[in-house]
Design goal:
The N and C termini lie far apart (44 Å). Helices cover 49% and strands 15% of the residues. Bound molecules: nicotinamide-adenine-dinucleotide (NAD).
């Protein structure tokens, strides 16, 4: 690594107020990756582990930093006494997954609760089990863990869709609504289930034919060829596949009044949120509505409490309604308003932490005796 890169990294950390960046290499498993801790001013940092075949370490690092920062914004907007982190690892053929995740567990354990690790792309049940073999500070995928994570995320997205319909039309009237869901994975499938339950007209797409077939069998829903979903006429387009899919080419084809989905970092660039606003499309920022699993996981780890999915839906729905109302009243893109609010809350947390007599982590863990905070 040349000296130029080190300066670039340190500048990026200082600009965004990161606390820590750890470069990881495990001789035994061959694992390489990064752990970024963005903020612990209000409590421990929560973040998933993403395993992805990044084409180079710079891409992995940029993804790690962006996702950790977004987790802090999510915690602030969800009113959680917690902050953001992310662990990414560069996937490669032959990586010994069991050893790699056991090593990540050791790294996590050494931080003694400053960082809690959870699932993300490439980190499912098997990986989490290996992780939990060496740390107490990770999401247990079995009955000892928080459970119902995808359900909680889907409930938040459903609440965001409802809030947007109410903000625009003043009613829900589900049977009249056409919703296009992109991605039929854990979150997309649970969202479809909820939408079908309330009687909405649902169409969906996925790159994986097996997932399409399973959803068609279970819900009898209309399937769209992958790629065509962007142009499908609908009230709501709900992207629940991958981040960065809202860009110049896809926005030009969009034919929805509302965009509200659960995938992280949906907008390729923040200017795309402005473009949606100029086109008269109500974009519900994912950072506001995809925090269901985070809320469920954080309250479980910090307070031993399994927040009911319905309560998570209500909590996210209230916050989304308030923020959308504010954006509509001010005539601003909701993504800008969410960003402004997250920054305001973070500055407040950091000011309070600077004046706190005891470290923030100790304070928030101490609060556990009183049960989950009322936010
Ligand atoms: P998943 O891996 O279970 O499902 C993703 C699905 O998207 C897969 O079926 C995949 O085939 C499909 N897909 C990928 N690219 C596609 C494309 N271009 N068009 C159509 N389908 C495509 O993931 P998940 O857990 O359901 O999460 C979905 C998204 O939500 C991810 O971006 C994830 O980071 C985000 N998210 C998930 C949670 C959670 O609780 N699982 C929480 C917060 C955010």
């Amino acid at each position: 690594m040349g000296p130029g890169m080190a300066v670039h990294v340190l500048n990026a950390l200082a600009r965004e107020g990161f606390e820590e960046l750890v470069a990881l290499h495990d001789r035994r498993s061959g694992l390489q990756g990064f752990l970024a801790i963005h903020d612990t001013s209000a409590g421990p940092a929560f973040g998933g582990i993403r395993r992805f075949p990044y084409s180079n370490e710079n891409r992995a690092l940029v993804d790690c930093l962006r996702l950790a920062r977004a987790m802090t914004a999510k915690c602030c907007l969800a009113g959680l006494p917690a902050g953001g982190a992310k662990l990414v690892l560069l996937d490669q053929p032959g990586l010994d997954l069991e050893r790699a995740y056991a090593y990540l567990g050791e790294v996590t354990e050494r931080l003694q609760g400053r960082f809690y690790a959870g699932p993300d792309m490439g980190t499912g049940m098997a990986e989490l089990s290996a992780l939990c073999s060496t740390t107490r500070f990770a999401t247990d995928p079995g009955p000892a863990g928080p459970g119902e994570l995808a359900q909680a995320t889907a409930a938040g997205v459903f609440a965001g869709i409802s809030a947007a319909l109410l903000a625009l039309d003043g009613d829900l009237d589900w049977p009249r609504r056409r919703i296009v869901v992109q991605g039929l994975g854990a979150v997309g499938t649970e969202l479809v289930r909820r939408l079908v339950e309330v009687g909405a007209q649902v169409a969906a797409s996925d790159l994986d034919p097996a997932r399409c077939a399973a959803a068609e069998r279970e819900f009898g829903l209309e399937l769209l060829p992958p790629g065509s979903e962007f142009g499908a006429r609908c009230d709501v387009f709900s992207p629940n596949a991958m981040g960065g899919l809202l860009h110049d080419l896809t926005l030009a084809r969009l034919s929805a009044r509302i965009v509200a989905g659960g995938a992280n970092n949906l907008l390729a660039r923040s200017a795309h949120g402005d473009r949606l606003h100029e086109a008269g499309v109500l974009f519900v920022p994912e950072v506001l509505i995809n925090s269901g699993a985070l809320i469920r996981g954080a309250l479980f780890h910090l307070f031993g409490h399994r927040e009911p999915v319905a309560a998570i839906e209500g909590r996210i729905g209230d916050r989304a309604s308030r923020l959308l109302r504010e954006a509509l009243d001010e005539g601003l893109p909701p993504a800008r308003v969410a960003q402004r609010e997250a920054r305001r809350l973070l500055s407040q947390r950091r000011r309070e932490a600077a004046h706190a007599p005891r470290p923030a982590l100790e304070r928030s863990l101490g609060a556990a005796e009183g049960g989950p905070p009322v936010c």
